């Protein structure tokens, strides 16, 4: 009796089997008049088209923001926003900041006081050099 494989059609599940980018939109705001936006205007003219082609899953908007410092605002699928001021940065530094927002998850930064959290204590207990056999050198 020959063995035959069953044909299965995969079901689409959000985040299972595929990477879902957390950043959904990047907004680039600049001022036409101010010198602090010089790097942002250079980035928009030379690097933004390549960045948008490399990231088609992100909605990118560019808008003027008169008499204000240039910023990049990232919107994430969890509803949060992160804003980075790019005042007086050159176009390569602005590209790094845009990549930082793209790769970010949108979660708040958390300080971890303990590296591992567990519901159960370790079998050996907590290590201490003052307990157990004394080592002689």
Automatic annotation (TrEMBL):
Record key words, sorted: Mitochondrion, Ribonucleoprotein, Ribosomal protein
Coiled coil spans: none
Domain of life: Eukaryota
Chief location of this protein within or outside the cell: mitochondrion
Swiss-Prot/TrEMBL GO biological process terms: mitochondrial translation
Pfam families the UniProt entry points to: L51_S25_CI-B8
Domain Ribosomal protein/NADH dehydrogenase intervals: 32-105
SUPFAM superfamilies: Thioredoxin-like
Matches recorded under InterPro entries: Ribosomal_mL43, Ribosomal_mL43/mS25/NADH_DH, Thioredoxin-like_sf
Location(s), subcellular: Mitochondrion
Recorded GO MF terms: structural constituent of ribosome
Example of a GO cellular component annotation carried by this entry: mitochondrial large ribosomal subunit
Family stated for the protein in its record: Belongs to the mitochondrion-specific ribosomal protein mL43 family.
Protein name: Large ribosomal subunit protein mL43
